[in-house]
Here is the input.
Amino acid sequence: MGKSGRTRQGYDGVVVTAPISVPYERYSPEPAHWWLARALSAMHDATKLGADDIDGLCVSSFTLFPDTAVGLTQHFGITPRWLDHVPTGGASGVVTLRRAARAVQCGDASVVACIAGDTNHVDSFRAMLTSFSRFSQDAGYPYGSGGPNGSFSLMTSYYMDRYAIAREDFGKLCVAQRDNALRYPHALMKKPLTLDQYLNARMIADPIALYDCVMPCAGAEAYLVMSEENAKSLGLPFAHVRSTIERHNAYPDDPVQIRGGWALDVDEFWAMAGMQPGQTDMLQTYDDYPVISVMQMEDLGFCEKGAAQAFIRANSFTVDGSFPHNTSGGQLSVGQAGAAGGFLGMVEAMRQLTGGAEKNAVPNARTAVVSGFGMINFDRGLCSGAALLEAGQ
Amino acid sequence: MTEPLRKPPRKNPQVRTVLPTLPPFSRSRKAMAFTAAAAEGRFVLQVCAECASATYPARELCPKCWSMHLEWRDADTGGRLISETTLRTSINTYFRERMPWRIGTVQLRAGPTVLAHIHGDVMRNDEVRMIARTDKSGQGVLMALPAKETPNMADDRQLRELTCDPKHRRVLVTDGRTELGQQTARALASAGASRIFVGIAEQWRPYPGSDDLAAVPGVEIMPLDVTDTISVNELAGEIGGKTDILVNTAEHVRPGGTLDRDGTLTARNEMETNYFGLLRLMQAFAPGMRARGADGDNSACAWVNLLSVYALANWPQFGTTSASHAAAYSLSHCLRGELAGSGVKVINILFGPLEESWRQSLPPPKVTPQKLAATIVDALRQGIESVALGPVAEDVVRRWKEDPAVLERELTQLQAGQAS
Here is the structure.
């Protein structure tokens, strides 16, 4: 419950549909606009909806400069009555969903296209890190310019110092994700990964080694938010939004990040959904490094804080395992397409719940938890969020 | 434990000189106050004037009480290393060339946690002593040092990127005729400088201390007259490619203001040495130093100017000398701008009245040449770019920082005993 004392309202009658993933590429000479355009074009192919049918647009992208969502309306020929540009990076999947769902629920828009995408030129990742945020510019980047590798190595190192966990445990998650990725056609990583390979990989920023790190790439993801009646009349398979949370700059006084905003809101998250952590069918975490997936498992209540090692050892994380996790391979195996990385788990969950997943389908999946995490502004990720989706009837 | 730095090998002339690359240099305007303090060797944090909490990185607003009154204050340098990593890849060319590179998270006693470069002798969970210094890009950064001195501590690879340690370096001292020049050569020799070129104008003219100077280990007497462009250029042609540190000890000083004498000759002589002398040295030596800012363990690293503190505001008792030092001080900033990107630091030491013949009649407290020489070496070892030396200089700098307009009035008002 927020400080106002009012409880969160549900999202009755609002659904998500039309999950679109534009296959990623390691490097692309095309601009972000092209990737976002491809997502819309693919959405049109899948749904037959066009510019006249979309009256809400929500965009997330790092490399769209000098444009924002505003410029895209003219570029794409849309005349929306509701528009948002979301700068929350890895939390953008959850955050766009929350924004768009309320817009549809309250009648500010009928059909909202949520799109995220980024290009990856040969030097654009470096350029993005150079000007990522003021705090990072002043107090982060000048220290070795390790980028997220540096930040997450300090978080991982601190976490490993404090809680019982071993590299093997992180490795188990990475290996399972690679297994899932081999069943997902668009993953950039096509070769199997063994635990030995994981453990013996070269160090990048101790204790983070090669297979702990995502590969930056170009790509785009998209989905639609609309009313249930609308989806039914269009004949689109859909999923319900049962619960969401969002939090920024949680626990600012923790000296090093060992938890995220999920921990502040986890009780409301499950109460709103009317479910318990053990009752859902899969978890999609934001996984640019395995330590943050572990924190999401803990902070969303799937295990106690500090008990992740036992949880990991007691479960299997492949699509046919006891705890299906990052069922398309996650960013670690599919690639990190900038802000689309924040959509990857969301779009994958929608695919799973609307019958769109193929070889990597989780059997009889009805519910999915999608979690987001983003924006290492200085020393920690500021944005966190989660959503619980349930397959439509 | 830090390995002692070995004497660098003789340079292979067939191999291309490594070009200077830089750590990231962009900073917010607010963070420039941190850099300015780091240039003085001070570690400052923003502290809220209302709720007293310290904050980092630089902010516009206190995140605890939303007061706008954040003041930069000298901070407790204590802390503990609570997380650390060794980076083995970087997207920045400067760091990439220097891998592996250690960084860590330090919990400051002052409150905030900060990211910092880590000295090789600091281990996880150790107590540390923080220093703020300018890095090769000229911007302020933090480094965590061992709380207590360790053997060969100054030779740490990452620390040496922030300092200009004279150890194994070759130094030009531009004027060895004065006690200051000779003390400087001695201090540099004691600090491990491998060669100390000492300039002497008109070598046929005898000067006190010449024999002792020539006997200082590493000292080589070179012909140099900073008022003579040909002389400066000739010496640069000979040793410009192996001058790692330049200490400009040449000074022409005469008491008095403009009404104490006729004409402009004295003022011209002051300008010839104090301003044009610096300019000639810059034109002759700075290009070579700029190209050698990353040239191994004995890279070019520092240019040291010795300036009267009255460069900041004119003191009419030494009115024209003050003006020439003001011109040189301004030019030193031009030099800093022109060397930006090379990794070569411009160190300005602003001194109060020096214990030497032309300032003989001034009352104490005064700065001895020996003390000034020791301060030069200390600034180099610590990589500090701006030093006020002696009680008079400290006092003037403090007043200047508080309000330069008030200082100007203070220095030019009638003194007790002067006719009204």
Chain A has two domains: 14-123+218-234, 144-212+238-391. The first strand of chain A starts at residue 14 and ends at 25. Chain A touches chain B through 38 residues (CB under 8 Å). The radius of gyration of chain A is 19 Å.
